[in-house]
Amino acid sequence: MTINDINNQNLLKAAGFVGGEWVQADDGGTLTVDNPATGGIIARVPAMGEAEARRAIMAAESAWPSWRAKTVKERAAVLMAWHQLLLENEEDLARLMTLEQGKPLVESRGEVRYGASFAQWFAEEARRDGGDIVPAPRTNTQIRVTREAAGVAAMITPWNFPIAMLTRKAAPALAAGCTAVIKPASQTPLCAIAVTALAQQAGVPAGVINLVLGSGTVIGSELCANPAVRVLSFTGSTEVGRILAAQCAPTIKKLALELGGNAPFIVFDDADVPRAVQQAMLSKFRNAGQTCVCANRIYVQNGVYDEFMALFKERIMALKVGNGMDDGVTIGPLIDGAAANKAAQHVDDCVQKGAKVLCGGNALGGNFYAPTLLSDVCDDVLPCCEETFAPVAPVFRFTDENEVIKRANDTIYGLSAYLCTRDLGRAMRVSEALEAGIIGVNEGIISSEEAPFGGIKQSGMGREGGTYGMEEYTEIKYTLLGF
């Protein structure tokens, strides 16, 4: 399948979107979009820069007063129309995603539905984003606390979930009354273009959503430095998050940073082992391990270690690697050659330090890497200090609860953590002790539009989704009324 097989050709603009117009780069420059499964070029899109980003910010700033002046019902109606269009175009969007990102088609379909859910959720949530009347300190006065749209919001989205991460940022911003300038990952701009085209069709006014394609360094610098941008939301690595935070400091922007993770997945002796294996599979191998919340370090207590490993190996060996467009494929390619090389580096480091490869452990050509299970891994390995972002599962033994909590927390990251146990007391105790913003107990899939998503420590700040998702795009105003 090629891009020409997409039914709704209106989704394929090969352009940026500024002030309600589809535009090219000022200098005519382009960047290629590659299919990670085949290595072939799918499309060429504009390679924009500082000037185009500045115009997008100006367009968003100009559109902000009229957009925030709309009633909540009016903004919600536009978001609901966007939600419906995303669902109506599910198959085309899913195919486009698999072409440029590589994940199996069944996962892409799921992401489209997940992405659409944020437009629906925040259309509804906007109507509940009220304020407070606070008891006043003296008679004949009243304290009003209200939430107001922060202003122009810049959003830098990642390649691993190119639709869901865009809507998870843009939907609450628009619901709150903000306008948006979006910079998608260079590897996956086609999904962002398609979603923006549907937003336009849904009735989002000119300038309310703007899309700038090109170099993350150049465009990101303008988004951070421009004082008209009041909020910066970024999903990506901790290393880049540090840079963006520093660049935003001179203009004191609100920051929402969803950064790297190194999730521990803990299986206790009293766990339901088959269920633990099932949840570990879901957490570790979704999107070929390329998720910030996937299990990066799997700790299994001695009493169930052998049983867990036997079942886990059986399930991993049943995975089918291939082009995400092909029937039955459960593991697609990694995003590029550098990702495949990193997977090999992590496996080699574990093996050199005593780990055993129970299955996989080898590159499969191109951007493909075999689903891999490593046993008897020590703590002094790369997966303990870095995100692997690949279908590689290192498994560590542990003896007792206090020991594993200490080992699980021994990281600069604090995005997600998982534990499997049938002991309610242990579930509560360990959940409280783990240093992470998201905890899964006997569950490996933890993301939903209803829940606040985000981390602690160097995994970022702020939350996306749930009743908390609009907070990043609003400012609190206190008014003292005398009468």
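Next protein, fold it too.
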Amino acid sequence: MRPSGRQTDEMRSVTIEVGTTRHAEGSCLIKCGDTHVLCTASVDDRVPPFLKGTGLGWVTAEYGMLPRATHTRMRREAKNGQSGRTQEIQRLIGRSLRAGVDRVAMGERQIVVDCDVLQADGGTRCASITGGWVALKLAVNQLMKAGDIISDPLIDPVAAISCGIYAGQEVLDLDYPEDSEAGVDGNFILTGGKLVEIQMSAEGSTFTRAQMDKLLDLAEKGIGELNTVQRAAVT
């Protein structure tokens, strides 16, 4: 039995509220159970120096956790003093979102997606990617409405979900009690039914190819459910 009482293939409840901040071109608050992340997308007509004159757009991300997002207060991280974990997660969010972008259609501009964890209960990076795509899509919709972009550079949603082996069973969408004790923990990012990235490791026990396949099956099921919520949020 899972601590939450969920079935092995059952996700936490997921909601996405859009337009949660006044000034950002795109914003949403995604809630995956007790994990809550505020995602905002900001459009900048400038691109990083290495892209000047190429005609290509760029999507990047920043990630952070509020001091009381977890059970105990943590210190705020200055940008030049970010932990290795924070840097790794924001790079993951950025490259995951770029995987679903036609950077030629986007034009020579940058969109920065900020993901701020208000409350953490496992799966914060996955919620950030899933909600980050919604904020990105809303920002792109504004650009298209203004005529700055002719064709939609976002073809398919990008979403992420965690899966793992807990108490000897393959389970979908780990919350913190499961994540902290899982023998195997993985994050799966997909777009358009294709894999973008898998982060997976044996935390307390090794795993077989058959178990890996079961986890991937669970991830595809979960991503399909997330895509449905994402599309409903941006239409």
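About the second fold: The chain has one domain: 14-234.
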